[in-house]
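Sharing a chain and its predicted structure for anyone who wants a worked example. Both blocks are below, sequence first, tokens second.
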Amino acid sequence: MMCGTRLALVPALLSTWLGGCAHLQVGEDGLSYPERQARLEAIDAWEMNGRIAINTGESAFQGRFQWHQSAGSIELSIRSPLGAGILQVAGPPERLTVRARGRTWELSDPEPELSALLGWWLPVRSLNAWLLGFSDPMYSSDEEFGPGPALQTLEQRLWQLTYESYQLSEGLLLPRHIDLTHASLELRVTIDRWRPSS
């Protein structure tokens, strides 16, 4: 009986071990998860664009976004499907300039102040890592890896992220569809293009 119990544990233990080592396997881009992360962190400037759907539980919005990252600063632009500017955020994560509805705000405590302006939480401090398929190293996280090897789910900063699909961009395996949820707030992101920039 004891022998049968031990044998039954072997597949479960093997599955756990393989799951823990998944990030060391090689993906479609020929890189392991740590190698891909190091490669992307070495790129000083990059940009991406795509589509975003926001559901706050009380209202919903769909539009397009563009993100530019350079030397620790971000530029985020969100536009309506017809191209009208909805929101522009620029600067280092510690001090952002926000433009919306024809007005400009200088934020010294960006995330809570931006949340107050929008009426919902936009986690700008961590988005640059999350959009590339990594956890934010400044905060604790719970990660699960899928094939790729790449993040499949991530829990961090009271957010739950599900990486629905990946794509090869400039030879690197990067997210294509991401679902981000926090309480009743849901963001759905589709990344159409990513590339290094000068």
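Comments welcome. The chain has one domain: 2-64+121-196.
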